[in-house]
Design a protein that fits this description.
6-stranded parallel beta sheet; 16 strands; Rossmann fold; alpha/beta; 22% strand; 307 residues; 9 helices
């Protein structure tokens, strides 16, 4: 495993949730923080809803330049609580600086201006950083690849505090399509690369302990690979589910390696580039990433899409 930031102080800054306690010295009960979502557009609202349903965070704060829209979306989610049988607290705000104290800040889509990206998105993150934000930033919109890379390069936010979640939604779709070929719910496989140039690691894909390539004709797997461009960008509800899963891992840790965008520095011949890889996540940051299991041909295809 390649450590995303050896010696990073982020883990020490990760706060305990109310009622949590330290045990055995430095070992802690996994914290469950408040998560702030910047943008109450379709992506932001979907993430807020999924986080509320999963009940793994202490509370959710939905922030939008139109405070009325944010308040309305938050109210909708709260009113759906009895139906969903959840009671995760969710509030709203109209000032982006309301997110400064959150250990996780999701960059999503404003209800009026759309996705926070480009120079506008960079100015937003710069404002948060200058105000003292020490959060891990989760970039949720499909258009956030450049913003994630520039946040690391120009604002100096450590790579272990940056995660891109939109491509993660594609992985679930590919697994489902591959599963349909055999009539199974899903398969174990790797999808890697820099969106929209994503590559499926068919050479190491498995189901029920056997290689997928031994059970599915090559032309059928090729057809799924050729369908990848049609899966990008993923729908907001799919991004919501994928993002919520990553935030759960940030808050409580997980033994699973989750696919998501991370900044690589030297691997694959590139520096400061966002690449989707299997990540180890916990203690509020990216703990490291592992090299994807790809054939020589698949690796060549992936690296050619990074530049």
């Amino acid at each position: 495993m390649i450590d995303a930031a050896a010696g990073s102080p982020v883990a020490d800054c990760w706060p305990l949730a109310a009622g949590s306690r330290e045990v055995h010295g430095p070992h802690r009960i996994p914290p469950v923080p408040t998560v702030s979502i910047l943008g109450a557009g379709p992506i932001g609202a979907s993430i807020a809803h999924r986080l509320a349903q999963r009940e793994r965070v202490a509370s959710v704060r939905l922030i939008d330049t139109d405070a009325g829209v944010a308040a309305g979306k938050a109210l909708d989610i709260r009113q759906a609580g009895p139906v969903d049988r959840v009671d995760t607290p969710i509030d709203s705000a109209g000032d982006e600086l309301a997110a400064v104290s959150s250990p996780v800040i999701v960059i999503a889509d404003d209800s009026t201006g759309g996705a926070w990206d480009g120079e506008q998105g960079l100015a937003l993150i710069r404002r948060l950083v200058r105000a003292g934000a020490q959060a891990t930033f989760v970039f949720a919109a499909p258009s956030h690849v450049w913003l994630m890379e520039t946040t690391c390069r120009e604002l100096g936010v450590p790579a272990d505090r940056l995660i891109g979640s939109a491509p993660s939604a594609v992985v679930g779709a590919v697994r489902a399509l591959a599963g349909l070929e055999l009539g199974v719910a899903s398969v174990s496989l790797t999808v890697a690369g820099r969106p929209p140039s994503l590559v499926v690691g068919w050479s190491s894909a498995t189901t029920d302990g056997t290689l997928l390539t031994d059970r599915v004709p090559a032309h059928r797997l090729l057809a799924i690979s050729q369908a990848l461009p049609k899966l990008w960008p993923p729908a907001s509800y799919a991004i919501g589910s994928a993002t919520a899963q990553l935030i759960d891992a940030l808050a409580g840790g997980t033994r699973r390696r989750l696919p998501a965008l991370t900044i690589v520095d030297g691997e694959f011949g590139v520096r400061g580039t966002a690449v989707m890889l299997p990540l180890e996540i916990g203690r509020g940051r990216v703990l490291g990433h592992v090299m994807p299991s790809l054939s020589a041909q698949e690796l060549t295809e992936m690296t050619s899409g990074l530049t």
